[in-house]
Amino acid sequence: MLSKKTKKVLLQTGIALTISLSSFALPSHVMDFTAEAAVVNTQTGKLTVTAFSLWAYSAPDWNAKTRTYNNGTTFDVVEKHAIDGREMYKLSNGLYISANPAYVKFETAGASEAPSAPVQNEGDTRETTANLKMRESGSLNANTLLTIPKGTRLKIESVSGIWAKVSYNSRTGYVSTDYLKAVTDSSPVITQPQTGVQETPSTPASGTDLRKSTANLNMRSGAGTNNRIVLTIPKGTSLTVESQSSGWAKVSYGGKTGYVSTSYLQAVSTTPAPAPTPTPTPPTSGEQDTRKTTGNLNMRTGPGTTNSVIRVIPRGTTLTVEALSGTWAKVSYAGSTGYISTNYLEKVTVSQPSTPANPNPGPVVGTDERETTANLNLRSTASVSGRVILTMPKGSKVTVLSESNGWAKIRYNGTEGFSSTSYLKKLAAAPAPTPTPEPTPEPTPEPTPTPDPTPTPEPTPTPDPTPTPPVEVPVTQKDQRIITGNLNMREAADGVSKVLTVLPKGTIVTVESLTGKWAKITYNGMSGYASTNYMSPYTAPPSTEAPPAEKDVRQTAYNLNMRVGPGTSHGIILTVPKGVMLTIEALEGSWAKVTYNGKSGYVSVDYLTKVVSTTPQPPATEVPAVDTVLKIEGPAGTKEYGDQTISGYLLTKGTLQSISISVNGINIGNATLNQKRDDLLASHAQYPNASSAGFNLSANKDVFVNGTNTVKATAKLSDGSSISESITFTYNRPTFDPVGVLDNKDVVNYKNEDIKVSGYAKIATGVKNVRVYLNGRAQGTAVYGKARTDDGNANTGYEYLIRRNNIFPGENTLRVEVTGNGGEKLEFTKVLKVEKIPTIVIDAGHGGKDPGARGILNGSYVYEKVYVLQFALALEAELKAAGYNTIMTRNNDTFIELNERARIANAAHADLFFSIHHDYNSNPSSKGAFLIYPSTKLTSISESTLKESVDVASAIKQSFVAMGFQDRRNGTDSSISGHTLAVLRQTEMRSVLSEIGYMSNSEDLSKITDPVFQKAMAKGIADKIRAYFGY
């Protein structure tokens, strides 16, 4: 035990002492002491993650990694710590995050110097200008204790930023100073001297600026909070201001000279005059603020043009302003609540109704008002497994909406949810008057739904009963909504199931059914559930029945990645070159769906330039060329199977630019011009180009169909005019049975090598494609059109290379399928015998400077990097004993870059890349094992690699379950991690990443750290790998 004196010394020197006991039955003297570096400052504010992904920590310790947060996530900052030469912010959710400005953006909550003790503003009395929420702490995220009616006078106990500490109705809490106005109290405030502080300074000389500190106040080395703290001046100290600039005063105290904030100094008068006693004016009844829109006006989700538009309010609409935030007004219209600019509102004078006889009526007859008898959780569903929305303090007043099976659906401070009736008591028939509904004085910031916070433990002493779960209610009419923030879509209607994907802010979704506050929706082909708390109703703009708008065509400003889905977390399909024109098929937030090179995907609209066209006009008709003659001379009549020459002439007095040729409506190219024609010079000498008016184009024999063919020539002249001419002819294409071969190699048994597949195929209608399959799995499309000496040098050959790490030891079945343009099929099969030893790359995650996840074992911290290496070495021993080739990405405590791990596997032509990890969750009850497989690859050895990775994962998963791990769902990296994983994306072969148990769960950790269990687990994994490869 530490003495009180020792603890006090530690705290005074800026050291926070954390004492934690492990969950094991340890002797009382076994403790874990963690000394944190001193607090740099206690400046509160808002933090936004600017990095793509950033670690958060469970303690002020760079090794205490807990989870990651994505770009754009915002937090409330409590204070800043210095840790090992670097700085961390402490967040209001209890976690810590890097203060490096390269990764985060921090905005202070206020410019005032934060005092080290509450500021006692003696005699500071203010009046509420609206029905005002009192909160547990100075934050919009804090729980609401009660609502203070408009016009109530409050004594300000302290001020921090925009929050004032006050007491009302026997409760103490915090209110926003934006909705308080200064008043002159009718009775003077008695100042109580602070014990131990001299309150009677000597009379200063004439002209001296004497002031008193209103709080324990930091003296700094310079005028600003970024300067070093010299010392702390006690509250109530009289100081002489030597100079003053920009809110800072230069003073001397305790033999030191420095700067203090003038916000916490109070002028001292040597002959204070008694304060006058004004006649108090009773507060006037609240007048409704009614205004009218002066134009069609956007309603937004928050106060500012950066927030999403909910709907457009027509000009001339009369609205009631519920609250003001700067130049933005909170209003409700057509069932939606949002914010509009006051610049486009004008006051509307509304006659006031006469005051009713009873200005404070009681609750509506029939309402069921109750009071909580303990701190009580409000849950999302009528079950102890329901997500905790908030915790209601003991003594909170709630309205019961319905009751069933020991659970009550209630409304508390505007939020609805479920609580156990065991901790609710009926109120008397005549409760205190309910204050007028407030206009929500402080705007609620848009929530960040990713990730769900750890639920607050249920404070009630006995478990809640388990009622009937809520029923999924189908939506009977079309219900479209817009997502108001980046929102998780989950597997089930709860806050704990797996996240399938993240819906970008601004996405329009159609609600298929509702389960409580969860909506079932479909997005990008996936069905799941999302919280309606972060959705607003969406009404599609009415159709104007105008003529169809022209296509939205945009041009790429750079070489631009096309991705599988709308977001940088999705895999890259291909790169669209700079300057390409793309037709926008659909818009999802800042992403556009397009098609290029036969592939459909998404590109960022930030790198597209709108192609502005002139006023839409009907397609321009061809301007006929004057004094021009076009003639196609061949082919004519009936032609036999073979290449054909399309020829003719064009006589003109203008300048010819080009002649394009099409066969049966398909353009096959431009003809060669200026061919010599002496015959035309003699017969058509009036045309300047007669001697060189000829043109021709050689067309491949497979361009033409059997029977009648139409050939069209279109000539364009330099003046923009054009002329066309068509002819028909008969083509005798031979009809023969499809024929082809698959080359036989002289190889009896292949080694561990790439295998070339070749042959030739002929089909009367032409060959459409040649597909190659190995063991029933598609490998890819062969190259067709190779010259074959065994087929008269005809270009009928095909070739394909099967990569060695696609081939299994023993017998492999090869199948080649040739498809003709008319649907004809040729198929060849062959058995390939292969003598090879599979190569397995074993990747122990993390290492060196990257410790990975952390757990607590026997009162000490243990790290993921240690045990994944032990598992990897055990697995290597098992596979080597079975005769496999193995390669370790690391065999000691070394940090290996992710791209280097992938390079090692690719260079070795590995048959399998297997990465070993242990998971972590802030909820210690989370446990189990699962595998992650790639959603996309930069380069793949075959079309089947992704599917084969799934097969390997499914096989290995069986060994996890057999060893007693809870079975958790396997999935792609993008669905489980929210983005693709480098080691899976960059490896070319089958690849999986395993999460074998949770470091944060005591049951899993006891297995992970047990050497005997590690060897047994490694043997189980090795057995499944051997069964998969059949070796």
Automatic annotation (TrEMBL):
Single GO term (MF): N-acetylmuramoyl-L-alanine amidase activity
SUPFAM superfamilies assigned: SH3-domain, Zn-dependent exopeptidases
Gene3D superfamilies: SH3 Domains (2.30.30.40), Zn-dependent exopeptidases (3.40.630.40)
Keyword annotations of the record: Cell wall biogenesis/degradation, Hydrolase, Signal
A Pfam short name: Amidase_3
Coiled-coil annotated residue ranges, if any: none
Cross-referenced CDD domains: MurNAc-LAA (cd02696)
Record's compositionally biased regions (Pro residues): 273-283, 432-472
Signal peptide: 1-25
Polar residues composition bias: residue spans: 191-206, 293-308
Sequence ranges assigned to domain SH3b in this UniProt record: 123-184, 207-269, 288-349, 366-428, 477-539, 550-612
InterPro entries per record: Cell_Wall_Dynamics_Protein (IPR052354), MurNAc-LAA_cat (IPR002508), SH3-like_bac-type (IPR003646), SH3-like_dom_sf (IPR036028)
One annotated GO biological process: cell wall organization
Region (Disordered): 191-210, 269-308, 428-477
Classification via PANTHER family: CELL WALL-BINDING PROTEIN YWSB, FAMILY PROTEIN, PUTATIVE-RELATED
Name of this protein: N-acetylmuramoyl-L-alanine amidase
Organism this protein belongs to: Proteiniclasticum ruminis
